[in-house]
Amino acid sequence: MFRSRLVLILALLAAVPAAAEEAAETYVFGIVPQQSGSRLSRLWSPILAWLEERSGLRLRFATTRNIPTFEKRLAQGKYDFAYMNPYHYIQFHERSGYTAFARARDKRLKGILVVRRDSPFRRLADLDEQDLAFPSNAFAANLVPRAVFRQEGIDVEAHFVSSHDSVYRNVAKGRYPAGGGVMRTFRNTPAAYRKQLRVLWTSEGYTPHAFAAHPRVPPEAVERLQAAMLAMDRDPRGRALLKRIRLKGIEAGSDPDWNDVRELAIND
Q1: CA distance 160 to 132
Q2: What are the structural domains of the chain?
Q3: What is the pLDDT of residue 66?
Q4: Which stretches of the chain score pLDDT less than 50?
Q5: Which residue in 31, 48, 208, 250 could disulfide with 59, CB within 3.0 to 4.6 Å?
Q6: Strand 58-62 relative to strand 178-182: parallel, antiparallel, unpaired?
């Protein structure tokens, strides 16, 4: 009897480190670098801290200096969870198995083109034969407006920069006459640049960015994170954090939600 109990106790003690290690697993949460890494960290780290408290998961903020590097890490499956643009989602759902579980509520993603406030340009056609700035491989800020230019027969020379903020900064400083972005990042960009710009054009709306999980993440962990996300706007602190990134709330999402993006058949 004593020996049986001793064996049981030893087995339980041996299981404790493994259980603690499992509970302490940290999930890397990648955020698409639409803005500078320091700014994204200030905006998203408090959100991930809130989600940690509510989900019981350990989450580590991650981003990259530019979108091409972010794409490489998605292709390699470096992120456990990722917040990615719609074009990235349809690409890396197919290539790396990322599967969407949430998206912004009551939101459609629209691309914009900005010019300086004192710019003479008023219509898309005015940008014919101009050099424009675009964030590399961004969906609404790059691929959509360039597709519209092709459809309209407007010839522009695309110059790629590292982020949305870089577009706004370059246009404000007069380095390019116009550039692509989205309203959320435009409203979040430093006022010193935003006040020098105006929106020339806005695209149609598409399903917004995806919150997606890599297939290695256990379904139970995805469910816990999803539940915490969906509850954010019901908590005063969570609602304030969402407001900082210009989101009203987060709702459940699933892969077919991005079929409208697939139907564009964009080949950059």
Answers
A1: 9
A2: 26-107+207-262 (3.40.190.10), 111-202 (3.40.190.10)
A3: 87
A4: 1-23
A5: 48
A6: unpaired
